[in-house]
Amino acid sequence: MLDYQGSGMSVMEMSHRSAEFVEIAAHAEADLRELMQVPDDYHVLFLQGGATTQFAAIPLNLTRPGDPVDYLDTGSWSKKAIKEAGKYCSVNVVASSADSNYDRVPAADQWQLSADARYLHLCSNETIGGVQFNQVPESAVPVVADMSSDILSRPVDVSAYGLIYAGAQKNIGPAGLTVVIVRKELCGRARGETPTPLDYAVQAEADSMSNTPPTYAWYLAGLVFKWVKEQGGLAGIQARNQAKADSLYTLIDGSNFYHSPVESANRSMMNVPFTLPDASLDKEFLAGAEARGLMNLKGHRSVGGMRASIYNAVPQTAVDALTGYMREFERERG
Ligand SMILES: Cc1ncc(COP(=O)(O)O)c(C=O)c1O
To answer: For tag attachment on the chain, is the N or C end more exposed, with fewer CB atoms within 10 Å?
Structure first.
């Protein structure tokens, strides 16, 4: 942290234009491209502003005022993306699972796609509801995916998407960095009023340095990409993640005490919500969990109960500690 490779400087102190940082940035991009097998006709951008800023940047870059765009509504983050896009273009909600409290991805044969949408937007993993897509939908228009909470958790066919974006803070690195992977042919037609740092073509031309990028977060992301490679790349990471998720869902499904609110076909490998038979037990469950070092298990108020977020950095031993505690709690309270 304090002395990068004998330079006597922290990466935090370096100019983003320095030779050292330019090399750090290029290596990180190359490793991400390798991990996700990003085709050459895609830009990989390292931006600021979080996924929420992309909710606006996407329509600003890809549409003209009033253009039709298709959005799937599978949970809280889809809803936020829809609301923001509505400021810039005409949003058609293709299908929504709001009526069943976001417990699934609506079946593809029920989607009401528009004839002339500029793109189809989805959230590949709804962080709050724990609803995850299993496959890329077939689409005549570019598919745009918010992968904030499941990027790098499993292999992805980048070529099936027009644009992938993700806030870094789950599987990539510290907050403050946002990764955008966008097909080159979709860039270069941003609206005139698009803020310059949000214009994909400008940022691509400037190697994501049209303004000062989040340099330290970018550096740390590069270290995480190396770590993911050491885990056997995305196939290796997926196997670890699948094993972690399986141990939780197997326990939940084998119990009459715990319940998963999500349809089994769409259960997330990253965020596992579960409820206890009576919400009055929640407080006691959480207190016992915290006493064992099992933190941040309280579910979002829209779902209730608990939510175990088991991102790439969470080891199987942590999940084993949780399942051990869940069995113990059920024995005592069930
Ligand atoms: C799926 C998803 N999309 C968007 C966001 C918003 O991200 P940010 O806070 O980086 O704007 C989050 C939150 O972390 C998220 O989980």
So the answer is: N
Q: What is the CATH number of the domain that holds 73?
A: 3.40.640.10
In terms of residue numbers, what domain contains 223? 4-230
pTM tops 0.90, yes or no: yes
Residues with a known catalytic role? 77, 146, 170
* 225 and 239 together in one domain: no
Mutate to test the pocket of ligand 1, among 127, 144, 178, 179 (most ligand atoms within 8 A of CB): 127
The yes-or-no verdict on residue 302 having pLDDT over 90 is: no
Dump pLDDT digits (tens) for 42-98: 999 999 999 999 999 999 999 999 999 999 999 999 999 999 999 999 999 999 999
Do 225 and 328 lie in one domain? The reply is: no
**Together in a domain, 179 and 261:** no
Which residue's entry shows tokens 């050292």? 20
Quick check: 10 and 4 in contact, CB under 8 A?
yes
Question: Is the shortest distance between the CB of 248 and ligand 1 below 6 Å?
Answer: no
Ligand 1 centroid to 76 CA: how many Å?
A: 10
Q: Who contacts 176 (Cβ-Cβ below 8 Å, separation ≥6)?
A: 48, 50, 168, 214, 217
